[in-house]
Specification:
Blueprint: E1 27-29, H1 30-40, E2 72-77, E3 88-96, E4 106-110, H2 125-133, E5 136-140, H3 156-159, H4 164-182, E6 189-194, H5 196-207, E7 214-218, E8 225-227, H6 230-242, H7 246-260, H8 267-273, H9 285-304, H10 322-329, H11 337-351, E9 356-358, H12 361-368, H13 381-392, E10 393-395, H14 410-421, H15 425-439, E11 449-454, E12 474-477, H16 495-511
Parallel strand pairs: 1-9, 4-5, 4-6, 6-7, 7-11, 8-10, 11-12
Antiparallel strand pairs: 2-3, 3-5
Helix pairs in contact: 1-12, 4-5, 6-9, 7-11, 13-14, 13-15
Amino acid sequence: MTSFLWVTCSTYFLYCVCATMAFETHCFSLCKVLALSFALFGLVAVGEGRFKGFRKFDVVQDSSHGAMSEELWFIQKLDHFNGADSRVWKQRYFVNEDFYRPGGPVFLMIGGEGPANPAWMKEGTWLTYAQKLGALCFMLEHRFYGKSHPTTDLSTDNLRFLSSRQALADLAHFRTVMGESRGLTNRKWVAFGGSYPGSLATWFRLKYPHLVHASVATSAPVFATVNFPEYLEVVWRSLASENADCPVLVKKASDTLAERLKDPKTFENITKDFNLCSTLQIQSEMDSAYFLESVAGNFMDVVQYNEDNRGFEGVLGTNITIKVLCDVMGDASLGDPYTRYVAVARLMMDTYSVKCLDVSFSNYVRDMTNMSWDGPAAGGGRQWVYQTCSEFGFYQSTDSPNQPFTGFPLDYQVNQCASFYNISSKEVAEAVAQTNEYYGGYDIQSSRIVFPNGSIDPWHALGITADIAAELPAVFIKGTAHCANMYPARSQDLPQLSEARDHVFLLLQQWLK
């Protein structure tokens, strides 16, 4: 992050948004969207999140952002936990030595649920820290994302090698080999990540304390949960922080759309309203839920990345903010709340140059079960949803009454695990429990990890927002969104965002003495 979402920052995502593919057709399927969503969600440094709205179509328009960063390849083990398996593969990574001073620390940016974006090797708060502290900077792409392909395809059997535990072992092996080959073994290594990579940064320090000295874990969901209705509760509060009536109007519009989807007589008008690629057909609750979630996703995405400075990544739509959406929803001249909801969808379609919308759930299933690396969901969608089914959950359902949307309950989310990977709802619940048992959830027993989170970001509900201990501090930034502190500083940043960046630097300075 369907609601799978998750937890991609400019990973993906995520995002935070960065995909390496561009679409040539004008009729997009939302499942293709989903695929991108995680790529977009990942951006490497920040991940987590799967974009649910039309931001799924967001692609990097100008690849020159990272043109100066050379792709490098590391020989990585396929299975770190089976000594009898000697298979290896090539993992992509990047290096920036511009700021390194002999004896300085080593910064490791952790890739997430999308392609590693080399733009992060040229810009970002972590490079500001690197310049001040004389750090050598690496960025390692996450296995199964971007160009880091450990297996010949994305079959469910091969995806068993995709897990946070294998990813952490990748980081450990990379750190060990790079330390030995570059004479960096005794340097102090610091891990960085946002969203899902922020979780990995936390767990890297937790599970491999002898290899990583400190971690900056931004917008990191550290507690796995099957049902995550709190995400949409934060969306309500974030919309209300702009205008108290905004989420109420969104709720009325979503309810109206859900009711109309029950009446086939309305399908022709809905098709025209949302400019669907073909006449709407609702043959199951899954069809209805998929449509409702897709449209709701526009608000979810905008809230998650509200006013984040992601332009340097080549991301579109950064001008669409909570204020913009709430202004549309509050414009009575447009008509009733449903009509304004349609206007938001049209605005997002125009922003991402989407000519028509494919809301076919069957097409989504077809794309998500395509196992080829050339498939429409190979940009990250198939992989990330697998991780939610096999490790994390994070399903952003409408099961809470204190949120603004209708019609995509937990069952809709979990049923996809069985459809795509033959993972039952019981197995999902067991996997999530095992994740918390292994990592500890909120009960983090470690040191030298800082946890920045933004109050607008819905993911903060699963993160650390209050100090655990003196060396496990939280930095809760009021009025900011997902991974905001990771992006390059700008003049219009809120004072508390600038102060948060400075505070993290002071912690690093102290911990690296």
